[in-house]
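cache lookup: miss for this entity combination. No prior model stored, computing from scratch. Input as submitted by user K.M.:
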Amino acid sequence: MSSAGRFGEYGGRFVPEALIGALNELEIAHNTAQNDPLFLAELAELHRTYTGRPSIITEAKRFAEYAGGARIFLKREDLNHTGSHKINNVLGQALLTKRMGKKRIIAETGAGQHGVASATAAALMGLDCVVYMGEEDTRRQALNVARMKLLGAEVVPVTSGSRTLKDAINEAMRDWVTNVADTHYLLGTVAGPHPFPTMVRDFHKIIGEEAREQMLALTGRLPDAILACVGGGSNAIGIFNAFIPDSAVRLIGLEAGGDGVETGRHAATITGGTPGVLHGTRSYVLQDANGQTVESHSISAGLDYPGVGPEHAYLHDIGRAEYRAINDDAAMAAFSLLSKTEGIIPAIETAHALAGALVVGRELGPQANLLINLSGRGDKDVQTAAQYFGIPL
Amino acid sequence: MTQLDAVMAKVRAENRAALIAYIPAGFPSQQGCAKAIQALADAGVDAIEIGFPYSDPVMDGPIIQEAAEISLKGGTNAADVFAALKVATDTGVAAVVMTYWNPIERYGVDQFAQSIADNGGSGVITPDLTIEESDRWLAATNKSQINPIYVVAPSTNDSRLAAVTSKTGGFVYAASLMGVTGTRATVSSDASNLVSRVRAVTDLPISVGLGVSTREQAKSLAAYADGVIVGSAFIKLLLEAESEEKGLDAISHLAKELAIGVREGR
């Protein structure tokens, strides 16, 4: 395996031998595509005419009044087709699936955003699509289950283990081991075995590339800090990547603190976890003394994952990025605040980054410019939010 | 030379295949597991694999998943795995541990290998450890003189088969099909192809697993494989039994049938 699959001591491949051939095939397909102007042009055209790229930047002036007066800019990935950044990766991998001659994609989903994006790409490109979703999540996100079915995908509720995202990934891996000859596993985050962390980052890095130019044009300088929520970490890597060489720009990942990291009921993997191996990659993991994965907890289904992408683990260890935990209540307060001050209802996942901005803005003061990846919109969360705020439905 | 090496040499001399049984530590209970190991050894299995139950077993089908869940709910930890290994080796059969990688890393790579050796174990099967990630593990297994056993699959190409088997000790674990563990009505024809391809690159014994549950299947595999691995079929009997005692009788009966099967294949 190439060293490209490792981020310091993290990353790599911890998978059944049965999958090595498919991972090698995917690595080659991805490397070839990244150097193929035709592929890049096809993807760029799809982003222009289907995704709706480039996504705009909105300055959140009224919201910023609650953040110590710092200027706050939102990178509007919520305005992409299907409502989140997830479409960037899905279109890229679906094109690769066709290039590899495979007819079927499988995907895991937590909140349903990646599942909806996968079902969308499958419909667009004429691929069969099966989405694995924890039974618990099919209840929390019933609307997205219906959306996936309307798009022609099959949704399989997963009843093993904790019945959430972690177990949906297990079930998707089992399907892949069995059907790898004609099936591509369209993994939705920057985790999993090589080449997924690198490939998914490559498909999302457009977020940061656009934002870097937009911020220079808007403000004449680079932002002081960039904030993004981190579950597996795909939207965060997407916006961080272009700024990694800009050492003066602080990169801040906001993890799901659940009831509080000190309670043990959280999904803040870097803040509260330890190095280990989960789902084919070495990274930080929420685990017990025997190496068993511990169940994560978060009000946000999309962040409710006991692992995290290996590049985040590396960026943390070398001190290039910092990671903080935001509790459920702080995230929901920021969710409400953005809705009422800007007329933008964010995804609950994204609300963790917004809550982080309220803190970081006060730390950095009124001279600071903060860029937040507004990774998804909150339509899917209306039921959860209504329940949380006591709004009768 | 480990006890497993000796057992594989012995069955080769007897012109038959070895019968290798899998049972997770702590299943159906800590004591039940010890009794099951004894029953399997008494019924004539040549080697036993003790499973380290894991929270995220991506190579396992519903039967072993359920057993692992029961075992973990019972609090099974690394010490219980080594205790079960000791029970197995004390019966006189060769014994190994089968585990996903993370529990080894968490326990300590060198310490894990040494604890296997200290409890009389012959080796460890690591279904999700690739050879590219194996440097520390191979140093540890070498130091503790135990067999690092790798799994190969029908999708493994010939050059990679050579690379993987060059790191392997004890036997090569050949997965009979593309898929997860579980009983199947027929053993895939991929198995004989894979065994021939492995034979072309190594002199190591080759054991076939995944999907084997009957004397007939054991017999057909024993025609060309050096070992036949059975796991889910035993676990299913224990899960479905009305009582632990009846479950033990059932696995004893099946093990005896399989032991005949591995002797009538050639």
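stored under new cache key. The CA atoms of residues 184 and 211 of chain B lie 5 Å apart.
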